[in-house]
TrEMBL record:
InterPro entries, alphabetized: RNA_pol_sigma_r3/r4-like
Organism: Companilactobacillus bobalius
Record's protein name: Sigma-70 family RNA polymerase sigma factor
Length: 162
């Protein structure tokens, strides 16, 4: 048994995977739907491999893998929420800073920031637009923009220390 067979089975049972995503309220309209779908395919393949090694009776596999997908996807959503809640970082939350004080952020070296970082600084921190909305506009995943936001915050901290 190898993982490749698990991926083949996952591709043959895409409807089951879509159903599990729908059960945990991850809908096709989300901009990160494809990311979750890929994660679910990987989980399916790993589960298939472990199930085949442990049990030869495949009649109960579909309900088992469906429940496993629901649990793992729910865990992923919880982890993502906890990560987002923890990394909201109010240190540079310009939304809470009065506009008169925003002009006092003269420590920012704009030339060291990428175009995307400048947009995140302006749109997310100063204008309060969500990262998901910005991600859709720039055809990026929200996960990537959170990574970019954290890099931006690291740069801003370094600039502020100087």
């Amino acid at each position: 048994m190898n993982l490749e067979l698990g991926f083949q089975q996952a591709l043959e049972n895409q409807q089951l995977i879509h159903g599990a995503l729908k059960r945990v309220h991850i809908y096709v309209t989300r901009c990160d739907y494809e990311d979750y779908f890929q994660e679910a395919v990987i989980i399916y393949a790993q589960t298939y491999l472990k199930y085949c090694q442990r049990d030869q009776n495949m009649t109960k596999f579909k309900p088992y893998v469906f429940q496993k997908l629901v649990w793992r996807l729910t865990d992923m959503l919880r982890q993502e929420k906890q990560y987002f809640d923890f990394h909201s970082l109010e240190e540079f939350d310009f939304q809470r800073v009065p506009e008169t004080e925003i002009t006092q952020i003269n420590f920012v070296d704009w030339q060291k920031l990428s175009e995307l970082e400048k947009e995140i600084l302006q749109e997310h921190f100063m204008n309060g637009i969500s990262l998901t909305t910005i991600a859709q506009h720039h055809q990026q995943t929200p996960r990537n923009l959170r990574y970019q936001r954290n890099r931006l915050l690291t740069k801003l901290r370094a600039m502020n220390q100087k």
